[in-house]
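Troubleshooting log. The previous structure file for this entry was overwritten by mistake, so regenerating from the original sequence record. Sequence copied from the archived sheet and checked twice against the printout by T.R.
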Amino acid sequence: MKKVIYPGTFDPITNGHLDIIQRATAIFDRVVIAVAESKEKKPMFSLSKRVDMVSKAIWNLDSVEVRPFSGLLVHLLQEEKTKFVIRGLRNGVDFEYEKNMEYSNRSLYPDIETIYLNCRAENSFISSSVVRTLLKYGGDISHLVPDEVEKIIRDA
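Regenerated output below.
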């Protein structure tokens, strides 16, 4: 069984993330969404809230599971007994950042294999930081996040 880890802060999960997750299920038997604690990023939402949002967003995807994690990605890969990581790319800046992360991770875990999926054009501008900015100023996020996530945020 081929398993892949999709790590991220998911603060909050967006339609762009969900697209990458759905496409990853066509490639891998099992997709583990690893929601990073990321204290250094000072997330808007708590780790448990982010895990809840991701869980609700992927409710209909049987081959996907969600779990929180802290620490190094390579330790999670070893714990999950996989070497595969999937990352979504919106642009060249994302690629440069992800390439450097891959090199760092490979220095610690030489077997790591990072698979990059380009986002679809309609999702190329969506980021969690854009969603957080819109939330801060009362903007509409309904077109950027899954319905289940919008409901959680609206009801908070």
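Strands lie at 3-8, 30-36, 64-69, 84-89, 113-118. Archived copy saved in two places this time.
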